[in-house]
Amino acid sequence: MLSETEWFTETLDGKFRINSINIYRKLSTQIVTKLDNNLSVSEILNWIKRETVKAFRSKYSYAPQVGALNNAMGRWNELIATSLLSEIVLEMNQEHRACIAVFSLPNSQLQKEGADEASAKILSLFSKDEFYAGKTLAKITPFKEKIFMPSPDYIIIVFRDSEISNFVNKLLEQQARDADSLELYNFFKGKLHIEEVKAAVSLKTSNRPDRRYQPLFEAAMIKAMGYALQQSWQYYMVVSELTSADRTIFSTAIAPHGIALEQNFKLVDGTYTYTRKADLVPLVEAAVQQ
């Protein structure tokens, strides 16, 4: 087991932070075994939660705060999904000699004045010269620095250069093991052509009413940019729990630019419930067929 200082950190206000990534890394071998044994994601998350609560009680003699545990559960859910998506894409690449990659983006941050990088991390994937006059991304160049949006949880791409496929597959193997790695993002950053991006994915354990519209804002921005750039970028929702309200909103919501154009453009292209690896296969298949 990790030392207590690696599992938890005391903050300046006397509270404790759960070091979710450290815990996941320590338990990763057992997590992989449980995934291989086809345990559901919720079963694995609850097991990690129990191990964390047990360790916290052992040190502090009381249970960690519910909010801190919920935040950690969300992060563990993302890490498991990253591993599973990486495995799915790797298998598709090997079976079909495809050139697919899936990876997370860093959190979008407001750039310092004069910085030569957009705040929206999805835009940092493209070569800077693609924003020059006469190039494919020139249409959004005038307001590139005014595009503010959270980073989608995942980007799915189909890349052109088959000569790098072996290297990309190695990075996918690494990402399946070390799910918090940004190696694939760093590799593709500033190199992609606009048509290589196929889909963005939002992953949530559940959509609280006060947070349900955050991923829809991401979707709206991506869809608006895709429309302006004549790209059919897809946006998918992945949830562990799908309420009737979620189903209604995600299946019927109109893209905001569709209202202005008086056309019923779909905002979310597909919603997938996620309990096991097999649940994510149709999502990847739908994305790469675009």
Q: Would you write up a description of this structure?
A:
- The chain has 290 residues and is of the alpha/beta class.
- The protein is 45% helix and 11% strand.
- The strands form 2 sheets. The chain has a 5-stranded mixed beta sheet with strand order 3-4-5-6-7, with helices on both faces. It has a two-stranded antiparallel sheet with strand order 1-2.
- Helix 2 crosses helix 3, helix 3 runs antiparallel to helix 4 and helix 4 packs antiparallel against helix 5.
- The longest helix is centred in the N-terminal third of the chain and has 31 residues.
- The model has no long low-confidence stretch (mean pLDDT 89).
Blueprint of the fold:
Elements lengths: L3 H4 E3 L5 E3 L1 H17 L4 H20 L5 H31 L3 E4 L50 E5 L6 H13 L5 H6 L8 E8 L8 H16 L5 E6 L4 H9 L3 H6 L8 E4 L7 H8 L2
Parallel strand pairs: 5-6, 6-7
Antiparallel strand pairs: 1-2, 3-4, 4-5
How would you classify the helix and strand content by structural class?
alpha/beta
The average pLDDT is 89
Helical region count?
Answer: 10
SSE succession = HEEHHHEEHHEHEHHEH
Write down how many β-strands occur, each being a DSSP E stretch of 2 or more residues: 7
Strand content: 5-15%
Shape: globular
- In this structure, how is the largest beta sheet organized? 5 strands, mixed
Distance between the termini: 45 Å
The proportion of residues forming helix, as a percent range, comes to 40-55%
Give the strand line-up of the largest sheet.
3-4-5-6-7
Please state the CA-atom Rg, rounded to the nearest Å: 20 Å
Q: Give the low-confidence spans.
A: none
